[in-house]
């Protein structure tokens, strides 16, 4: 996750630098875009989910293999002043993680694929810098509540039957940054955001000594979002 974060940061920094060099006195696009009380848009993007796992006792760590998923959602923005906006960004986030458990001979026992389809409800505060030509950097942060449609929380089966269970609802905090680019017909915004669960998501197996969940104190999602917004 750190690797992708710094790569994305470098890309955004290079984009900003190039914009400054080649657009020192540009024709200003969408000059009244940020003066509206309400603004609407949508986003598309990628995600990579991981787990932060805390253990009860020292033991071999559970291995987590990450893959890329996708994000799609809507944006509603309320203007507070020239530099602050309150945003609501409901979205669908699909991702998948493979968890590897030690001590098993059979792959069907050692591997659990955790597919998650989150419906995310974030309320975020966006703090922007002064507009420079046709771009404006910003930082963004806030809290969110997510519904995991693939949680298996109500399943009567657990890992002894091949089912890894998580709680349906999770609370998170989110932090990120990005750049608004004012194009001729719309505003385009690439952004990077980290999402960190603050509530335990694990539904433990019925057996308190389960080789899968018995040593887990807490399991919390963390993720990296790369979103592209059109407003």
UniProtKB/TrEMBL annotation:
Natural source organism: Maribacter orientalis
Keywords, comma-separated and alphabetical: Signal
Extent of the signal sequence: 1-22
Domain called Outer membrane protein beta-barrel: residue spans: 31-201
Full protein name: Probable protein-translocating porin PorT
